Amino acid sequence: MTEWLLQSQHDELHLLPALPSNLPDGSVRGLLVRGGFDVDVSWRGGALSEARLGARAGGPTRLRTAKAVRVTSGDAPVATTRPEPGVTAFTANAGATYVVRPA
């Protein structure tokens, strides 16, 4: 079931990759994924509403999402790129928390 909500492979975090239609609203907290992130994810109407990523390690980070997202840390926007459709990339700093919301 966890892999319906979050996958971590090929150096990417894929948020809500296979959310079942019978779970249109919900949340999950405390997932630890490859790449050193603690992840909380919430969704409404079958779409991402927010994800919080706690970085245990720093480095390049790629997020795959169904729709474009914006990333903040604290109240500040994080510089991101869109290397390909559906992917948002940024550099994470160890110890920082990143908030991901629809753009």
What does this protein structure show overall?
The structure is a single chain. By secondary structure, this protein is mainly beta. The protein has a single domain (2-102), classed as Golgi alpha-mannosidase II (Immunoglobulin-like). The protein is 4% helix and 60% strand. It contains one helix and eleven strands; from the N terminus they run H-E-E-E-E-E-E-E-E-E-E-E. The strands form two sheets. Strands 3-4-5-11-7-8 form a six-stranded antiparallel sheet, with no helix packed on it. The model has no long low-confidence stretch (mean pLDDT 95).
User: What's the end-to-end separation, in Å?
Assistant: 27 Å
Shape: globular
Number of helix segments? 1
Structural class: mainly beta
What is the CATH superfamily classification?
Golgi alpha-mannosidase II
Question: Could you write a compact summary of the structure shown?
Answer:
With 103 residues, the chain is mainly beta. The protein is built from one helix and eleven strands. The protein has one domain: Immunoglobulin-like (Sandwich), CATH 2.60.40.1180.
Fold blueprint:
Layout lengths: L1 H4 E4 L2 E4 L10 E8 L3 E8 L2 E9 L3 E6 L4 E5 L2 E2 L3 E4 L2 E6 L4 E6 L1
Parallel strand pairs: 2-6
Antiparallel strand pairs: 1-2, 3-4, 4-5, 5-11, 6-10, 7-8, 7-11, 9-10
